[in-house]
């Protein structure tokens, strides 16, 4: 009985360390997401300053009647959940999807390209964050179950 209790305690220790590591990774991803969003917004502001406030505004967006297609979509991969890959990004539409930067003209400033890259990176951080969050939740469930089992062994 004590041998089984030792195994449970070792597993609890390992899972606790895993949970702390996942929490640290989640914090780093959220900080990276925040930095990417701030950089993207800053680049948009610089572009608006360079081109003028009316050149980068809602007026350049397609009308409500226009057909819009996403470049990427986030897909839940439940069958891969055991591989710890819960969510992933898939490309949509192939080469047919127009580049949204062309809404603002042919020669757009580099800042607008940088903003697009930063917002694309932000999507990747969000997906990674969701995956880490799911791993963390799974680890917490395992911890709770093992703690209950340990109580049964002791009680």
From TrEMBL:
Superkingdom of the source species: Eukaryota
Region forming the signal peptide: none
Gene Ontology molecular function: any one: unfolded protein binding
UniProt-recorded name of the protein: Vacuolar ATPase assembly protein VMA22
InterPro entries xref list: Vma22/CCDC115
Native species: Brassicogethes aeneus
GO biological process, one term: vacuolar proton-transporting V-type ATPase complex assembly
